[in-house]
Amino acid sequence: MHQITNSDLLTFMVSKQEPALAVNNPATGELLGYAPILQHQQIEAAVERAHQAQQAWAKLPAKSRSQLLNKWYHLLLDNQDDLARLMTLEQGKPLAEAKGEVLYGASFVEWFAEEGKRTYGESIPAPSGDKRIVTIKQPVGVASAITPWNFPIAMITRKAAPALAAGCSFIVKPAELTPLSAFAVAELAYQAGIPRDVLQVVLGEDAAQVGAIFTSHPLIRKLSFTGSTRVGRILMEQSAHDIKRTSMELGGNAPFIVFDDADIDAAVQGAIASKFRNAGQTCVCANRFYVHSSVYDEFIEKFAAQVEQLNVGNGLEEGVNVGPVISQTARDNILALVERALEQGAEVATKRIEHDGLFVAPVVLKNVCHDMEIVSQEIFGPVAPVIAFDSDEQLIEMANDTIYGLASYFYSQNIARVWNVAEALEYGMVGINEGIISTEVAPFGGVKQSGIGREGAKQGIDEYMNIKYLCFGGL
Ligand code: NAP
């Protein structure tokens, strides 16, 4: 770990003797270090400290919280290279992508530092002259979060920043595969002056234990979860007992659609960006491609040629576009999906390359049918199945034929079709002639079983605030 120049970022790392979680590099298998694990009572104590700290934090003027968040934002930027290196080491994504994620993650801190000053209430005309009605917004209290390994920094900051800006304290359990980035980001928040009990990172003996505490502890008023629909369902069930407020950012099955009037070269560029970022391991990655039969062969040929140019390797090496996938289980699942698709009649359109370890060669599959398993499952790997379609009606039916509703993409130059298709897609987000849609200024989130709530944008802070209505009578 000596390559990290700001050694303060690693102060949390514990020795093997203490209760600790080993963290390994997915590219090499090498041991990177250990993250601290807390016992059940220690996590409950952390929640109690978060509750105490929240009282004073909420009393600070919004502008003061904003100034602290701004300092955190600048420290994240100042430490971009070290944070990116740490992220590549524990998560595997190419260094350039990791640097991009640090900026993306920091952008939520900057954004909500501003939005925290604008949590306006309303004055509402009363139904009778002797009354006045106003609303105010107040922080929910202690907010908890559970985050995945695919964006080890951004999935934390886009929850922590609005929570802190709103006046909540925040306690997060990061994924066990990528906890080091989480502790490093928190360390920078402390350096910025954010109190330690206002922002805490905790790991327990296992995820279910922490999930049980977050969904049942009476001092926790909110759980924000990003991860699989399967785990989201469990956490919602657990939250139901105490009617705990939840936000859920869950799985996706994004369709990427190319119409016959599309700019095919632009569609190929968008497809590469959307599909292969983070080795295909993002919830908004294009999961299945629908291409009009009149341009199918042209698209496949150009797409496959570009995919064959992608370099697979250790994310720290220059020129690598696709790093390892996160685990052996992930690799096995991806390859099994491909094998079953081939058995069902799909064909490989790219050169087949075998890689060792956790590296999976990017693959384009042609002659894929809509009813194949690979089309209905979240692949979470660098595999692009391409299906032909003939009519807009058939296309919309296939695109919406999923339990998920997170991101979708389509390419068309026809303005009437653009509006019709954008409105017909049952998704929370639609990229139109664009393959990269995530930004702090827009509301990110899904419909159907992809989740509840929005992150980023002006809506993101409302997830951490209650609206209180004040009725003044006898006037
Ligand atoms: P996951 O298995 O659901 O894990 C996500 C988090 O939940 C991890 O911190 C994990 O802890 C924890 N967890 C697992 N079982 C739990 C339980 N029983 N109770 C409480 N917490 C539990 O998902 P993943 O494989 O890491 O991440 C990939 C998934 O996340 C994909 O489905 C992807 O689409 C989704 N995702 C969605 C968004 C979005 O914004 N909609 C963004 C990114 C990813 P451990 O790591 O300790 O097991």
UniProtKB/TrEMBL annotation:
CDD domains: ALDH_F5_SSADH_GabD. The active site is at 249. It comes from the Bacteria. Keywords: Oxidoreductase. The keyword Acetylation does not apply. Its EC number is 1.2.1.16. One of its GO terms (biological process) is gamma-aminobutyric acid catabolic process. Residues 16-469 form the Aldehyde dehydrogenase domain. InterPro entries: Ald_DH/histidinol_DH, Ald_DH_C, Ald_DH_CS_CYS, Ald_DH_CS_GLU, Ald_DH_N, Aldehyde_DH_dom, Aldehyde_DH_Superfamily, Succ_semiAld_DH. It is an enzyme of class 1 (oxidoreductase). One of its GO terms (molecular function) is succinate-semialdehyde dehydrogenase (NAD+) activity. Pfam families: Aldedh. Belongs to the aldehyde dehydrogenase family. This is Succinate-semialdehyde dehydrogenase.
